[in-house]
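User: Run a structure prediction on this.
Assistant: Running it now.
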Amino acid sequence: MSSHQPPVTEQIDDPESGWTWFLSLASMIVFTVTVVAVAVLFFAFEDMEIEDKVIDVPAREVMSLREEQNGLLDVYETYSVIPMGGTPEDAETRIRIPIEQAMEVQVAESMPDRADRTGVDRSSEVALLDDDPTNMPEAERR
């Protein structure tokens, strides 16, 4: 019994170079794109985390402080002031009033002072200036 094999007419040990080159280049391109995409995602997330944890933290603290201070402008409250070089026993108690009321008080206090200092009520001066022909533009005087 002899086993007879047909003769081999083509080469079977080397693969085709065209497919090998194509597969190698395609694999390198896919690998490079994957590495670049991962790097871009990493640095984008890193920048977002730095912004959230480092840059925005002082801004949030300032915003909360501003909200707290704005809230104090709208309420009545008492507080103590210790004079320079004094002790807590020397503290003076003061009252904080809402800002709107403080502005009204300030305007009310400043208006009588203005008339008292000059001795003249200046509220009618605006009406007098409107009637004065020297204050009109030349085109209107003719």
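DSSP finds four helices and two strands in the chain.
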